[in-house]
Amino acid sequence: MAKIQVVDSKEETRIPFLRGILTRSLSEAGLSFEEAYTVAAHIRQELGDTATVSTDELRQRVADHLKKNGLNNIAEAYTGKGVTEAEIRIRGAEGEVAPFSRSQHLACLESCGLTGEQANGIAEAVIQRLRELGQPEVTSARLGRMTYDLLQAHLGPAVAKRFLVWIDHTHSGRPLLLLIGGATGTGKSTIATEVAHRLGIVRTQSTDLLREVMRMLIPKRLLPVLHRSSFAAWQALRVKKSAGTKSDPDSVIPAGYLWQAELLAVPCEAVIRRALRERVSLILEGIHVHPSLVERIGNTEDAIVVPVMLSVLKQKQLRQHLSGRGLEAPGRKAQNQLANFDAIWGLQTFLLSEADRAGVPILVNEDKEKTTNQVMTTIIDTLTKRFSGTPEGVFGPADA
């Protein structure tokens, strides 16, 4: 095809027709890159061997094509008669104004346990509704109510209520304390990182790191149980056999772990209490996060405490997790963990039994995104038990 010149008589300019430029303009009007490129390619094909085209004629061709395909709102935004996504402003409760952020909106939706696909679908519907309003500025309350209504319409009242409960929590200022326990290789740190990213939690703490600090302070000869892996801590119990400690693995492995977990409970409690005192959210993860830790921290009326226990219920999969840890972080001594697989498996069995006894949710970690969503849902379920509000109470009147 011959090159086409786009002529702007007002500006007295003449530039080549470029699909890339039209694609960018359509993207700014609200189309995805793929959709925008498809439209730009169609317009180029439609122009054929035309030598020149005015900017007004080109704009009209594009607008007609968009309207023909039911994209009236995009056509209005493209021709300057509507509101583009980049032009939308959100006014907060205190009067502050900020540009609408699709990424922040997606993060909020994913915080309610939505999958990436579900969140993207709702976000797109919200953006389309905002464009249809034709107003460059809306309040955060109206944006919230709009999202709630679209969730109810597309995904049902249960999902919409999860969003309502989460927004109410974000308004409350109450800190969230998420306790992630689980045996070696169950993916605690990975899930903790994913959840922290989604919820915007900046304070996370690993019990392994706390143990390393204690090891620096207390020599091995004074407290040998602290200097062993959790699944091998029982080996330091030999000095207590006279006190009735049994030698069978099903008994000594949990006994060694509990001894070490009791020692780690002190710094864990200190970290938690500081977060509560400063009213900041915290994720504490590690094998030493025993269900009894919730009882130790006592009264947390002003905080939301959510304990979960991760698990991998297939031995082959847990072995693969342990092998992968060796590739990702050679210092974690994966070979030693694989050599002690039976002890790790036995300790997981004990931890799951303890979690079940204490009523702590047990999440099977087979897929990172699925497990992260399950953690989000567990948090919302905990919040729901303390929620008695209404959409009007959270967002204000429906027509505000």
In short, what is this structure?
This protein has 400 residues and is of the alpha/beta class. The chain folds into three domains: 78 residues, no CATH class; 86 residues, no CATH class; 191 residues, Rossmann fold (3-Layer(aba) Sandwich), CATH 3.40.50.
Structural commentary:
The chain folds into three domains: 5-82, no CATH class; 87-172, no CATH class; 176-366, P-loop containing nucleotide triphosphate hydrolases (Rossmann fold), CATH 3.40.50. Helices cover 56% and strands 11% of the residues. It has 17 helices and eleven strands. It has helices spanning 19-29, 33-47, 55-68, 72-79, 102-110, 116-133, 140-155, 157-172, 188-199, 207-217, 249-278, 292-297, 315-328, 334-339, 341-358, 368-384, 391-395, and strands spanning 5-8, 13-16, 52-54, 89-91, 97-99, 137-139, 176-182, 204-206, 282-285, 304-311, 362-364. It has a five-stranded parallel beta sheet with strand order 8-9-7-10-11, with helices on both faces. Strand 4 (89-91) and strand 5 (97-99) form a beta hairpin. Helix 5 crosses helix 6. It is elongated.
